[in-house]
Amino acid sequence: MSVSTLAxxxxxxxxxxxxxxxxxxxxxxGAAIAWLGAGSxxxxxxxxxxxxxxxxxxxxxxxxxxxxVMIEYEGRLLDGTVFDSSEGRGPQPMIAGQxxxxxxEGLSMMQQGGxxxxxxxxxxxxxxxxxxxxxPPNSDLEFDVHIVQVVPNAALMTGAPPQPGGxxxxxGGxxxxxGxxxxxxx
Length: 186
Known about the structure:
Layout: H1 10-37, E1 44-45, E2 51-56, E3 68-77, E4 82-85, E5 92-95, H2 101-107, E6 115-120, E7 141-151, H3 154-158
Antiparallel strand pairs: 1-2, 2-6, 3-4, 3-5, 3-7, 6-7
């Protein structure tokens, strides 16, 4: 039997194995670099199920339930449908503790000047009974939020303690009387 009849002479098997091992190493290295580089694009998930991502870090103290905030925001359904936005109206004022539970939890991880993205599971949003409007029952919500200004203890200054469950009037959460806390039990 001559050497020319063999498909791969034995001395080339080691070189071929080294080639495939090197190729596999380069693919794994590329995947690791991509995973590390995408770190700022990944969300952290809290124990409650809220997904939180810092797009641009803020500074100062973290927002408390009794703090007032001026925010620019856009609220979307997961299919991309915008159901509420501050665009064209300027920054919107609110008391952090007077928002839906998921939004209040997200605000507690934010600082003045920062930009954030949060995804709120339905049970921390409006659940099975959303306000009249374009939010279907049991919808998860996604918000892009820019914290323009924080006013520490703003709820205490008005004399109205924060009550969970409210949002700006255009989002269907606060009662029509500006500056009043929502009725108990809501």
